[in-house]
Amino acid sequence: MHTYDRQLAGELPVWVDGAWYTIPSRYTYSGIPIQKTTSYVGQYMENLGLDVEYHNWGGSTYPNVIGEITGLINPDDIFIIGAHIDDVQGTPGADDNGSGSVATFLAADILTQYQWGCTLRFALWTGEEQGLNGSHAYAQRSYNAGENIVGYLNLDMIAWNTPNSAQTISLYYSYSVPGSLAFAQLFSDVVGAYNLNLVPVLGTGVTGSDHASFWQFGYNSILAIEDNGDFNPYYHCPGDTPTHTDLSYFTDFVKASIATFVHKSECLIPSGLGSLDGHVTASSGGAPIDGATVSTEDSQGHSYPTTTDAIGYYTQTLVANTYTVTASAYGYQPTTISGAEVITDTVTTLDFSLVAIVEPLVYYIYLPLVGRK
Ligand SMILES: [Zn+2]
Q1: Same domain, 217 and 323
Q2: Do 201 and 327 sit in the same domain of this protein?
Q3: Are 96 and 152 contained in the same domain?
Q4: Do 218 and 293 fall into the same domain?
């Protein structure tokens, strides 16, 4: 989380268009920097297996970027989690709004590991700082197309908390938008249900971020943001750096946001948990291999590595799914088994017998020592 935020703030490079690039600015009219930023986001989401749209609402260098998991049962019911990724000139924008952007990245990373009945979208907006332009164009297009956006969770500035102060968060809904109060209450309930160290406060009347674009077209939406009474003193300034964030507050805020989004959608297809276990041994002689790596990868490319113990045994708990499993150990050729099924409440056993890598033979010739007794 901290790494992603540092990348967006230009402290660490990102991998984009096949090369490392350090983002100098995320200002919407910065040209190459915002183009690289939005390409980075799109490529990040493509790597997670999402369908990615670059929504050119203004100019081709600063599209909104939206990743989608299309629902398997009710694809027309659409839920969006998102944040504006642009910033103002002269600020690294770690909190405003690297923080909400990072939460959206993590939501995409985690939720692509599951199956969904409804459609989930992960949105990064541009042009927010000039007047919510990117999100407005998107909400308008959705409205004109008759899209059924059931909920939009907007995250903007979720990482600042004055040290040693109460971990208050603000949740903004609108009297005129049906369901938005219940949406804010759901967020608050999630904080309680998961024992997160946050103090939710509900409020109304804040229209300065992208949720307001959705309100304008009658879509249910809320804004989740830091405590309005504990405002980030580095807002829109050069000091809005990752150092000036509170990682424990930020972490709980991200957890609460992703969990609220999932509960709001109510369309997780229960897939349950199962386990994978087995032994890794040497093909010649059958000796157990201690410390072998067993790496399990799902179809989206997420990998879950584990290590064998002294008797060459490994076990891991996984979401029911089909996996490709590779065992490797120093001095042996790696072996891969694809199509391994992990089934709910069931143990699937996969044993590996690894073939030693044949080293070139070396003959040691021991010369008799002479002249010693
Ligand atoms: Zn902002």
Answers
A1: no
A2: no
A3: yes
A4: no
Residue 358: CB atoms within 10 A of its CB come to 7
Same domain, 100 and 231: yes
pLDDT tens for residues 264-278?
999 998 778 899 999
User: How far is ligand 1, taken at its centre, from the CA of residue 191, in Å?
Assistant: 23
**C-alpha 123 to ligand 1 mean position (Å):** 14
Structural domain contains residue 370: no
CA 29 – CA 158 distance, rounded (Å): 24
Rounded to the nearest angstrom, the distance between the alpha carbon of 209 and the centre of ligand 1 is: 6
Alpha-carbon span 146 to 141, nearest angstrom = 9
pLDDT digits (tens, 9 = 90+) for 193-235: 999 999 999 999 999 999 999 999 999 999 999 998 888 999 9
How many A from CA of 213 to the centre of ligand 1? Answer: 14
Answer yes or no: do 10 and 102 share one domain.
yes
CA distances in angstroms from 204 to 46, 64, 215, 330, listed in the order given: 36, 27, 12, 60
**Any domain includes 365:** no
- CATH number for the domain including 11? 3.40.630.10
Residue 118 structural domain: 2-265
Looking at the fold, whether 243 and 296 belong to one and the same domain comes out as: no
Pairing of strands 168-173, 199-204: parallel
Residue 115 CA to residue 69 CA, distance in Å, equals 9
pLDDT at 363 over 90: no
Residues near ligand 1 ion, CB 5 Å cutoff: 96-97, 156
Written as one string, the DSSP assignment of 252-281 is HHHHHHHHHHHHHH--B----EEEEEEEEE
Same domain, 97 and 149: yes
Q: How far is CA 143 from the centre of its chain?
A: 27
Contact present, 226 and 245 (Cβ < 8 Å) = no
Q: Are 41 and 122 a contacting pair, CB within 8 Å?
A: no
Helix, strand, coil distribution of the chain in percent, nearest 5: 25, 30, 40
* Model confidence at 13: pLDDT above 80: yes
